[in-house]
UniProtKB/TrEMBL annotation:
Signal peptide: none annotated. It comes from Paludibaculum fermentans. This is Deoxyuridine 5'-triphosphate nucleotidohydrolase. The keyword Magnesium applies. Keywords: Hydrolase, Magnesium, Metal-binding, Nucleotide metabolism. Its EC number is 3.6.1.23. InterPro entries: dUTPase (IPR008181), dUTPase-like (IPR029054), dUTPase-like_sf (IPR036157), dUTPase_trimeric (IPR033704). Its cofactor is Mg(2+). The gene is dut. Residues 16-142 form the dUTPase-like domain. Gene3D superfamilies: 2.70.40.10.
Amino acid sequence: MKIRINRLHADAELPVYAHGAEEDAGMDLKSLADIVLEPNRPALVPTGLSIELPPGYEAQLRPRSGLALRHAITLPNAPATIDPGYRGEIRVILLNLGTAPYQIVKGDRIAQMVIARYEAIEWEEGGLNESTRGSGGFGSSGR
Ligand SMILES: O=c1ccn([C@H]2C[C@H](O)[C@@H](COP(=O)(O)OP(=O)(O)OP(=O)(O)O)O2)c(=O)[nH]1
């Protein structure tokens, strides 16, 4: 499917699948700025992109596993939600869980974006059907 996208800055780059749409779920998002990530200080990183998702679709932003493993860089709000009605710039909240500052350079791939369908639901109040689990949870079935 086609999704409308705007570059809000001449240097903004469209997200791409690294191995093609058949093999990847996530497209890499690139930073539009040089930013130093200080340990334990969330930073808002611009992408220079805005999109128009059809109703029933969201974009989810997720960490890149390489950055997470090698540099302890994550998205504290992952999976971040980009709503179909949002027309502003997509920005990525990055958090450095390491102990040393980490330099993000303009053009670095900082996160991945997955386009996902969701159900728009209405609540129906009333009796709930019985189930085997019932109200058990939080380890009730043992280790
Ligand atoms: O990492 C993120 C998270 C959100 N957004 C944008 C798109 C999203 O549609 C909008 C609102 O996000 P969210 O609903 O998570 O924010 P909120 O804290 O609940 O604020 P709001 O009251 O604006 O909904 O902000 C981003 O660009 N990056």
